[in-house]
Amino acid sequence: MQGQSVEKNARTAIYPGSFDPITNGHLDILSRALKIFDKIIIAVLRNGSKEPLFSVEERMSMIKQVTSGMNVVIESFDGLLADYVRQKETNIIIRSLRATSDFDYEFQMAVMNSQMNREMESIFLMTGKEYFFLSSSVVKEIASRGGDVSWLVPPVVAEKLKAKLRSSGSNNGEE
Ligand code: ADP
Question: Nearest residue CA, atom 2 of ligand 1?
């Protein structure tokens, strides 16, 4: 516990991700995580490797609307997750495993993170089978081609996607 200025709380966990945009799969993980933890800090990555469709403010605003009534705090972060966690009241992060293809990437990240921050622990939750193949990318792909995404995301997100794609004039999802 050397050099730690923040008192750590084992009843809180951080759920980091791009959330571009938040989907029913993310919400499924969130509700599972809230069965284990009292409070979840949703940490929205500012500058991921992918160019986001929604600004970080838009992503946070959608998350806020669809998590009202849940014990969550919504923040954004930049840089290394290992450094962000160091400043927080918990060392625990939640990630999830969908199809087996997630495993390699998530395993690599968890190992690297714990190398960079020895106090950090990654907890993996499995999603419900109906969300196994759901991702923000798939949602954006379907929406950009005019498909119905109302069964994949909360209504407010479906609306924002429509408006965003209309305003960006995108109708085929390609750059
Ligand atoms: P990142 O770019 O960090 O992967 P995402 O927003 O895509 O950000 O995902 C954040 C976390 O949420 C990851 O652990 C991911 O596996 C999980 N997640 C994304 N979609 C789903 C889903 N459909 N069901 C369960 N978990 C999901």
Answer: 18
